[in-house]
């Protein structure tokens, strides 16, 4: 379905009341003003079924704030922006000195008409057979409370523009992380006059479909991690030829999975876990996102290769469980099956190339199966075109990012005339919380220009050294 969606006003005024937002333990709750924003499920039927979207405004620290707030947009797709902000709020405190923070849980996520499915979370990581995936997807569709065709980016940017009007702001400063960069780019395309600045962190270019490159970029990142270990005297001495050790571990666990009993990372209750090649791939991929968990990879791989699977399996349970809790599967599928899966093939990545990675084709195969059942949603005709704009845009990448490498930002920038691209050395996915990036972002938003932006502090960015044992890196 293709449609240019209008940002029709809400049916009722938006009333905000005192509240607190949080991302769960161990994060602190944050004082805000919250409200329920009513939006039509189908933009073509403004008097039809309405959705309740969750809004929070975190007030600026200044008594005389700037008129244009910052709007953080979460990734996933499927994570709520309020939860994302509450987990990374310190990265935006310099901006909040002079600006409100406006948070809209995108429709289908967080507390905004959430589109959850009561199915096994392994479906996201491709850890089910094709038949299991199809059955689980059909069950998911039957259980959804709303029509998934109306939970795409095209519709969501209309919600965001309507919120701007309802709150009385003249313009937004946009920050998008990962999938959120896609939302930010499309908002700037649809509503350039409503956009003052754009920060894209871990850039997803509109031209590319998320999916096929996940495995190849993850492999590239893992190869770089092993190369970095080989270049480190202490890491190379402790884990000689760690790449070969990982290959041997892969082969062994592919031939025979391991069953072990572990304490659940949240409840502490004993849980029997079958650790196979899919869990191994999932663990390594998720650990590759953050420089602090990257530091654990050689240690965990070496321990598993010597029969100690508990540390690696525990890390997988903890990270994968956190990811599954934060993602709304129904919204995730609505986006991927409209904006990505129909465009697979344009990246020129062959099945042979996918098969040569440690992840293999499982994620792509799972998405193809899911999307063979899932209904296609609303998408604008120009959605896959690069953003053409002279708005000030700050692009942020990590050279060790396993999913949105620096090259993606350059693809997105092809028609941008007023941008700067900053690349964090040995940094993974998401640069806002890293080092002094919060200062750079605040300077950019304050002056709305990339000219004379002082980025010298980024030369001091830190990446955790590799762990040599349970105690950590060498002194």
In the residues, how many domains can be counted? 2
Q: Give the quaternary arrangement of the chains.
A: single chain
CATH architecture verdict of the largest domain: 3-Layer(aba) Sandwich
* CATH fold naming of the largest domain: Rossmann fold
Q: What gyration radius follows from the Cα positions, in whole Å?
A: 22 Å
Could you state the CATH homologous superfamily of the largest domain?
Answer: Alpha/Beta hydrolase fold, catalytic domain
| Helix run count | 17
The number of strands is 11
The 3D shape can be described as: globular
What's the end-to-end separation, in Å? 59 Å
CATH class of the largest domain, please?
A: Alpha Beta
Largest sheet: 5 strands, parallel
Mean pLDDT: 92
**Run of helices and strands:** EEEEHHEHHEHEHHHEEHHHHHHHEHEH
Describe this structure in words.
This protein has 475 residues and is α/β, with parallel strands linked by helices. The chain has 2 domains: 17-207 and 385-460, Rossmann fold; 239-326, no CATH class. Helix content is 38%, strand content 15%. The protein is built from 17 helices and 11 strands. The protein has helices spanning 81-88, 93-96, 130-143, 153-167, 179-190, 212-231, 233-238, 242-255, 277-287, 291-294, 297-305, 310-326, 329-339, 351-355, 362-373, 406-412, 437-447; strands at residues 17-21, 30-40, 50-58, 70-73, 101-104, 172-177, 195-201, 258-263, 270-275, 393-398, 419-424. The strands form 3 sheets. A 5-stranded parallel β-sheet has the order 4-6-7-10-11, sandwiched between helices. It has a 4-stranded antiparallel β-sheet with strand order 1-2-3-5, sandwiched between helices. It has a two-stranded antiparallel ribbon with strand order 8-9. Strand 10 (393-398), helix 16 (406-412) and strand 11 (419-424) form a beta-alpha-beta unit. Helix 4 crosses helix 5 and helix 8 (242-255) crosses helix 11 (297-305). The radius of gyration is 22 Å and the shape is globular. The N and C termini lie far apart (59 Å). Mean pLDDT is 92; it is low at 1-5.
């Amino acid at each position: 379905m293709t449609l240019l969606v209008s940002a029709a006003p809400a049916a009722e005024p938006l009333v905000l009341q005192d509240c607190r937002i949080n991302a769960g333990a161990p994060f602190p709750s944050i004082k805000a003003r919250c409200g329920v924003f009513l939006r039509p499920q189908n933009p073509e039927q403004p008097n039809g079924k309405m959705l309740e979207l969750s809004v929070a405004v975190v007030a600026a620290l200044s008594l005389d704030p700037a008129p244009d707030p910052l709007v953080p947009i979460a990734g996933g797709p499927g994570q709520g922006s309020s939860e994302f902000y509450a987990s990374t709020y310190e990265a935006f405190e310099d901006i909040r000195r002079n600006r409100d923070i406006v948070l809209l849980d995108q429709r289908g996520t967080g507390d905004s008409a959430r589109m959850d499915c009561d199915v096994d979370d392994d479906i996201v990581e491709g850890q089910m057979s094709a038949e299991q995936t199809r059955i689980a997807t059909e069950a998911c569709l039957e259980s959804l409370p709303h029509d998934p065709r109306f939970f795409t980016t095209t519709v969501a940017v209309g919600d965001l523009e309507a919120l701007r009007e309802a709150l009385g702001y003249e313009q937004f400063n946009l920050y998008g992380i990962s999938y959120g960069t896609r939302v930010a780019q499309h908002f700037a395309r649809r509503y350039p006059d409503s956009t003052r600045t754009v920060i894209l962190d871990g850039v997803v270019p509109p031209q590319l479909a998320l999916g096929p490159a996940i495995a190849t970029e993850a492999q590239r990142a893992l190869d770089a991690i092993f190369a970095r270990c080989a270049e480190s005297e202490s890491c190379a001495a402790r884990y000689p030829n760690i790449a070969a050790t990982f290959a041997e571990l892969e082969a062994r666990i592919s031939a025979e999975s391991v069953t072990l009993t572990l304490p659940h990372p949240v409840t502490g209750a004993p849980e029997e876990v079958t650790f196979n090649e899919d869990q191994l791939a999932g663990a390594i991929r998720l650990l590759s996102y953050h420089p602090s968990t990257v530091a654990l990879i050689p240690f965990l791989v070496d321990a598993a290769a010597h029969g100690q699977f508990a540390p690696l399996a525990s890390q997988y349970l903890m990270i994968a469980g956190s990811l599954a809790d934060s993602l709304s599967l129904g919204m995730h599928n609505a986006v991927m099956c409209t904006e990505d899966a129909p465009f697979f093939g344009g990246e020129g990545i062959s099945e042979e190339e996918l098969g040569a990675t440690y992840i293999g084709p499982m994620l792509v195969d799972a998405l193809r199966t899911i999307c063979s059942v899932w209904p296609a949603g609303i998408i604008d005709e120009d959605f896959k075109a690069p953003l053409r704009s002279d708005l000030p845009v700050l692009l942020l990448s990590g050279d060790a990012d396993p999913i949105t490498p620096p090259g993606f930002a350059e693809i997105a920038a092809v028609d941008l005339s007023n941008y700067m691209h900053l690349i964090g050395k040995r940094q993974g996915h998401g640069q806002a919380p890293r080092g002094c990036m919060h200062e750079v972002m605040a300077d950019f938003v304050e002056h709305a220009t990339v000219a004379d932006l002082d980025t010298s502090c980024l030369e001091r960015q830190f990446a955790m050294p590799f762990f040599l044992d349970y105690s950590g890196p060498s002194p």
